[in-house]
Amino acid sequence: MWYFRTKKVIPCLAISGFIYMLGCAPLQIKEGIFSPPYKNYTITIPGTGKGWEQIRVDKEDIALWHKQHKAMIVVISSDIENKKLSLDMLNRHLFLGITNKKIVSKVTVLVDRHSALHTILDGEMNNCQLKIDSYVIKRGDKVYDLVCWSPFDSFSSVQGDFESMVRNFKFAQREEQL
Questions:
Q1: 96, 89 in Cβ contact below 8 A?
Q2: Is 41 domain-assigned?
Q3: 22 to each of 25, 54, 91, 102, how far by Cα in Å?
Q4: Which domain holds residue 148?
Q5: What is the Rg, in whole angstroms, of the alpha carbon atoms belonging to the chain?
Q6: Considering the domain boundaries, does residue 7 fall inside one?
Q7: Residue 16: pLDDT band by 50, 70, 90 thresholds?
Q8: What is the model's pLDDT at position 174?
Q9: Residue 5: inside a domain
Q10: Are the C-beta atoms of residues 164 and 106 closer than 8 Å to each other?
Q11: 70's torsion region: left (phi>0), alpha (psi -120 to 50) or beta?
Q12: Tens digits of residue pLDDT in 127-156
């Protein structure tokens, strides 16, 4: 897919039907809860029984691949240098490289009591038609991107798993005191 926050790009690998795995150690998940070190949040991820597999593509916090539906979910947290960037500006960066964009919905919501921009978008990348669901949360000098994408015809099959992850995204208590 695309991520310009840290000048890295996550290619649209799910659509081409293959996953490029790097030789990284498996992520530590306890009882379905992922808590990346030094990131100050937790998130409940769907189990392998739902068809999701953990993969490593680049430097995302976590990436999940659903082979049957050719879908991906990624969570990326990164530092932002310009604290004046709005949620809308950060959100637009997610969709660089996507052509024929059509915003289905774009609303401000709360994710763990913090303002987030929720966007559902139809678009095209590398001649693949995609449906993309994203949440962008800005907190201090960090941005948290939660993104799911798949071909149009399988989006409804994976969106519920993604929305469940978003509902279970929680900032750590020590972060709340900052």
A1: no
A2: yes
A3: 9, 12, 27, 33
A4: 13-176
A5: 15
A6: no
A7: very low
A8: 55
A9: no
A10: no
A11: left
A12: 889 999 999 999 988 999 999 999 999 999
Q: Which amino acid is at 123?
A: G
Q: What share of the chain is helix, strand, coil (3-state, %, to 5)?
A: 20, 45, 35
- As beta bridge partners, residue 74 has 63, 147
Instruction: Please tell me the total count of domains within the chain.
Output: 1
pLDDT on residue 82: 78
In this structure, what CATH number is given to the domain that contains residue 48? 3.40.1000.10
CB 148 within 8 A of CB 157: no
Q: Name, in order, each residue with C-beta under 8 angstroms of 25's C-beta and a sequence gap of 6 or more.
A: none
Query: How much is the pLDDT for 112?
Result: 95
User: How is residue 118 written in tokens?
Assistant: 């929720």
d(CA 176, CA 65): 31
On whether residue 4 sits in a domain, the answer given is no
Please give the average per-residue pLDDT across 64-92, as a whole number. Answer: 90
pLDDT at site 22: 38
